[in-house]
Amino acid sequence: MPRRQQATARQERLGTELRKLREAAGLKGREAAALLGTDSAQVSQFEAGLAGVSEARLRRIAAHYACTDQKLIDALAAMTADRTRGWWEEYRGLLPTSFLDLSELEYYASHRWDVEFLHVPGLLQTEECARALFSSRVPALPDEDLELRVQHRMQRRSILEKEPPVPYKALIHEAALRMRVGGRAASRVQLARVLELSEADHITVRVIPFELEDFADLGSAMVYAGGAVPKLDTVVRDGPHGTVFIDSEAQLTVFGTHFRRVEAVSLDAERSRDFIRRLSKEV
């Protein structure tokens, strides 16, 4: 397969998992290359996601690396076999790569969890809310770029509508729900949208109220995307210098525990819907 100029986050993740398998086997790159009948440069390209790997080669690599986790091997093999060109590819070269990588990640996710404190999560946002948020960027975006970002965010919602939809949980702080993004009328429409979506069987919305005590150590926003097997889960966090994709098992354990702790202290789904209904009347 020809060498890629740039790997997507999914292709990089496959490469990362190949590297982890090699390291778990105690092999250096040149030793792995000798087993596979290739050279260390190609092994490096596999592990960087810059060279494609067929399903047959993936299974051969796993055998040479003495991997016995059949569920993981099958999940990785599925990643090599899927050549889907997703809708997000139409934005390549027009939007930051992290936007496309997030779309690809959540499209393939087995489940999606959000924890948000400042804004309604992107998957639940109305078009008006998304436009208002992107409009507040400093420096301001050109009109064309602004509309591309809004359009992309609206298309991302397709994971909640496809068959079967991606199971989704959103833990939203009261501060995010009270934030009047785009003005009073837009906020009222946004709350109605969150309430409507929360009624779906595959969507759970839980509110973190202001009145909650001893919450300071839990105040960390994140996106958690489940993989085909837990080892392929990914956490996404936005920082001042860009979006970070986290896949180390230790960090996944930390963020998974964090989510469950926040979920445990949040209002349950029914009480959360009642909370949002009351808040809608105050806006």
Characterise this structure.
The protein has 283 residues and is α/β, with parallel strands linked by helices. 49% of the residues lie in helices and 11% in strands. It is built from twelve helices and six strands. A hairpin with an 8-residue loop joins strand 4 and strand 5. Helix 1 crosses helix 3 and helix 7 crosses helix 8. The protein is elongated.
Features:
49% helix; single chain; 283 residues; six-stranded mixed β-sheet; alpha/beta; 12 helices; elongated
Structure in a nutshell:
The protein is α/β, with parallel strands linked by helices. It is 49% helix and 11% strand.
Radius of gyration, taken over Cα atoms and rounded to an integer in Å: 21 Å
Share in β-strands: 5-15%
Strand order of the largest sheet: 3-2-1-4-5-6
- Fraction of residues in helix: 40-55%
Order of helices and strands: HHHHHHEHHEHHEEEEHH
Low-confidence stretches: none
What is the CA-CA span between the terminal residues?
57 Å
Q: Count the helices. How many? A: 12
Largest β sheet strand count, sense and barrel closure: 6 strands, mixed
